[in-house]
Amino acid sequence: MKTIAALQKLVTAASLGGGPSAAELDAIEAEMPLIAAEVELLDAQIMTIDRPATELDERRIRRARNRVMAARRVMANRTTVQAGGAA
After folding, report:
1. Nearest to 73 by CA among 25, 37, 20
2. Pairing with 24, which of 4, 57, 73, 79 sits 20 to 30 Å away (CA)?
3. Residue 20: predicted pLDDT
C-alpha cells in the first residue's frame, strides 16, 4: 500500500509574513469606492432573487449599476493618469 503525502510545503499563518504590506493596503483603499458600489449592486440583485422585481427594485438595480460604472470609470482614469503622467 502506498502512502499519500503532500508534495508542497504547508502554508501556515507564520509563513504568510504577518499580513498585507502598506502598498497592498493602499491599493485596497484606492479600490474601496468600486468595492462598495459592487456590494450595493449585489445587495440590490439579491433582494430580487425570490420575488418579482418591482419598479422600485428595477430603479435600485439601475442606480447601483450606474454607480459601479462610475467607480470603474474613475479607477480607469486614475490608472491612465498615473501610468501616463501629467497631461
Report:
1. 37
2. 73
3. 86
